[in-house]
TrEMBL record:
Annotated metabolic or biological route of this protein: Amino-acid biosynthesis; L-phenylalanine biosynthesis; phenylpyruvate from prephenate: step 1/1
Name listed for the protein in its UniProt record: Prephenate dehydratase
Record field: catalytic activity: prephenate + H(+) = 3-phenylpyruvate + CO2 + H2O
A Pfam family that the UniProt record links to this protein: PDT
Alphabetized InterPro entries for the sequence: ACT-like_dom_sf, ACT_dom, Chor_mutase/pphenate_deHydtase, Preph_deHydtase, Preph_deHydtase_CS
E.C. designation(s): 4.2.1.51
UniProt-listed NCBIfam families: PRK11898.1
Superkingdom as given in the UniProt entry: Bacteria
Chain ranges of the Prephenate dehydratase domain: 2-182
Length: 289
């Protein structure tokens, strides 16, 4: 089985994919949309994509592409603790050079904002497709006085030195990833810890129904279905038009969730199931960081 992840080698997405599918072939992809396209075209069986971060919130490119371009079912979820490292090439360290630029993914740079402001305020930042692609660039350009932010896996993969360790602004920083596959296919997923079960729905409200969102929430509330997340994203059909992605803290059952869906459809809402799946973690989240 081939499993895609946001590459190159050494990303947090690879860490998630490797933990869930230790015996499968992992295939790095240049972008998140490309990895999803390859599942749709049968080049990959599954892909692992980031969906939410503790600090920066939702990864909108994943959510929007899943909704508007490649409607792939969610097979599983996994949470990874994020520890960011400040890396430089050993040659630059030997010369005693200070970094003139800092490369990384926009999310990683935002997660380390306080550190960069306090330590390297005058070094401009540059965005890359992933933290690992920044590390890969550093490894292939040893003469450049540049640093990057990536994880320890990337440091080992590309022979870089950790100059500053664990520079993220919050110790509780975590990213949640989704495993996406194809409709009707079953796959075995393994990880050290099971967090919970989850069902994700996409709901489009009727345009001519006053108080529709309140009615949507009521349909879940009186059935005592706990909603762990409500996300609104534009439908791309006009200003003020949004759909809502809702996470319910249980798998699809025979009564409660189908009953809520039927009630919403009577109100004129369009309801689509994005996935009903188990969420895992690579660490024990019951322990304090």
């Amino acid at each position: 089985m081939k499993v895609g992840f946001l590459g190159p080698k050494g990303t947090f997405t690879e860490m998630a994919a490797r933990a869930l599918f230790p015996d499968e072939e992992l295939v790095p992809c240049q972008t998140i949309p490309l990895s999803m396209d390859k599942v749709s075209s049968n080049e990959l069986d599954l892909t692992v994509v980031p969906i939410e971060n503790t600090i920066e919130g939702s990864v909108n490119i994943t959510l929007d592409y899943l909704i508007h371009k490649q409607r792939l079912p969610i097979i599983a979820g996994v949470t990874v603790t994020i520890a960011q490292q400040f890396l430089m090439h050993p040659i630059q360290i030997e010369k005693g050079n200070q970094p003139e630029r800092v490369l990384s993914h926009p999310q990683a740079l935002a997660q380390c904002h306080d550190f960069l402001k306090e330590t390297y305020e005058n070094a401009p930042v540059e965005y890359t497709n992933s933290t690992a692609s920044a590390a890969e660039w550093l490894a292939t350009n040893p003469a450049e006085p540049v640093a990057c932010i990536a994880n320890e896996l990337a440091a080992k993969e590309y022979g870089l030195t950790v100059v500053h360790k664990d520079i993220q602004d919050y110790s509780s920083n975590r990213t949640r990833f989704l495993v996406l596959g194809r409709q009707g296919e079953q796959h075995t997923v393994t990880a050290p810890y099971i967090i919970s079960d989850r069902t994700t729905l996409m709901i489009t409200l009727p345009e001519d129904y006053t108080g529709a969102l309140h009615q949507v929430l009521s349909a879940f509330a009186w059935r005592k279905l706990n909603l762990s997340k409500i996300e609104s994203r534009p439908t791309k059909t006009g200003l003020g038009n949004y759909y809502f992605v809702i996470d319910i803290d249980q798998k699809m059952d025979d009564t409660l969730i189908p009953g809520a869906i039927s009630e919403l459809e009577v109100l004129g809402c369009k309801v689509e199931l994005l996935g009903s799946y188990t969420c895992y973690s690579l660490t024990d989240l019951t322990k304090k960081s």
